[in-house]
Design a protein that fits this description.
single chain; about 120 residues; mainly beta; UDP N-Acetylglucosamine Acyltransferase, domain 1; 4-stranded parallel sheet; 2 helices; 15 strands
């Protein structure tokens, strides 16, 4: 976890694989980051086999309320993820992402992010 990290209420991080969080990140209430996954094969599910994929979150990332970040995802630097989004794929740096599943709505100009600091 990087410097100057802020997490609101009820943030959950399931981390049987590495979860890396950069500097200056802010997480809204109810954010969940899950590095944990399970097999979809019924026999292997009965065996309670847990699997994991690392999650990487860059610098200056803002995750809105109730964002869910799934296993294996990388979120770049200077990213805002809108409330309620489910991040199932990588989000490139300097992006605004939202929705279920989360999609990049637009690129962020670096001046937009600097104005909020």
């Amino acid at each position: 976890m990087g410097d100057n990290f802020t997490a609101n209420y009820n943030v959950t991080i399931l981390d049987i694989a590495p979860v890396t969080i950069g500097d200056g990140c802010m997480f809204g209430p109810g954010v969940t980051i899950s590095a944990v996954t399970h097999p979809v094969n019924a026999t292997r599910c009965r065996d309670r086999i847990a699997q994991a994929k690392p999650v990487t979150i860059g610098n200056d990332v803002w995750l809105g309320a109730n964002v869910l970040v799934m296993p294996g995802v990388t979120i770049g630097d200077n990213v805002v993820v809108g409330a309620g989004a489910v991040v199932t794929h990588d989000i490139p740096s300097n992006s605004l992402a939202m929705g279920v599943p989360a999609r990049v709505a637009r690129r962020l100009d670096h001046r937009e992010r600097e104005a909020t600091k």
